[in-house]
């Protein structure tokens, strides 16, 4: 009878009852299989990365209106609209600032730009107004006096006392105050060649020639500082029936042109030339009339004899 092979674990009687130990298993960790920082498929957490960020409608509107109102502020006449746009932009900007949990950048810029547009509009309105007034004033100052070439009076003048060349006359205002001292210093009844030598002057009308009169004037009161505009010259024909005025806008007298004397200093004497159209067949013996017409009244005419 054969014996069975010995057991590798020993016999029960030997008291070897312990089994060999197994290595310890790590604890189960679900995080190694699932990422906790990402939502499960088909699930979007409330307030998470997938939710849209709220905007600021009033703030955006304020910003747009502010930009537009700043641009409009520089446009003449339309800049009055900037006041309405600016106030609207400020109101919307304030509304955008008080909204909770909304971005405020657009509302801040919209409010600032709207306020700036109000200031700009006020400044530009004042600037454009004064500029317009100044331009009108310059245009009026530079506009030559309306001077029809020839004026004739059908009624003869009565015989008048005439002065000799160089005799001073006093032009007085309605208060009797002397405004100018003036006189006729010289004349040339046939100065057509001299007048046409000035570029731009036209030939005289048919049957006429250009005469030239030299006038001296000195302001004696603050009210009379524009002799070129306030002292006029006329020519009374020898027959006394026709008066010719030195008021042709197309004519520029040879230098110095008397009509260009404005803003003359008090007591300063200026001497200049004035062009008058007279008949070519005038035999002479007429009169040169000197008159004053200003804001403080009128005076004259005073007549100077022509040989």
Overview of the structural elements:
The protein is an alpha+beta fold and 307 residues long. It folds into 2 domains: 57-142, no CATH class; 162-305, Immunoglobulin-like, CATH 2.60.40.1240. The protein has helices spanning 57-72, 81-98, 105-142, 192-196, 227-230, and strands at residues 162-163, 169-172, 178-188, 208-219, 231-236, 243-245, 270-279, 287-294, 297-305. The strands form 2 sheets. A 5-stranded mixed beta sheet has the order 1-9-8-5-6. A 4-stranded antiparallel beta sheet has the order 2-3-4-7. Strand 2 and strand 3 form a beta hairpin. Helix 1 packs antiparallel against helix 2 (81-98), helix 1 (57-72) packs parallel to helix 3 (105-142) and helix 2 runs antiparallel to helix 3 (105-142). The chain is rod-shaped and about 140 Å long.
Primary descriptors:
Immunoglobulin-like, four-stranded antiparallel beta sheet, transmembrane, single chain, 2 domains, 26% helix, 307 residues, transmembrane helix, alpha+beta
Please report the total strand number as a whole number.
9
What gyration radius follows from the Cα positions, in whole Å?
Answer: 51 Å
How many distinct domains? 2
| CATH C-level name of the largest domain | Mainly Beta
The largest sheet, given as strand count, sense and whether it forms a barrel, is: 5 strands, mixed
Give the H and E element order: HHHEEEHEHEEEEE
Q: The CATH topology of the largest domain, please?
A: Immunoglobulin-like
| Low-confidence blocks of residues | 12-16, 143-158
Structural class: alpha+beta
Give the integer mean of the pLDDT values: 76
Helix count from the secondary structure assignment? 5
Strand order of the largest sheet: 1-9-8-5-6
Give the second-level CATH assignment, the architecture of the largest domain: Sandwich
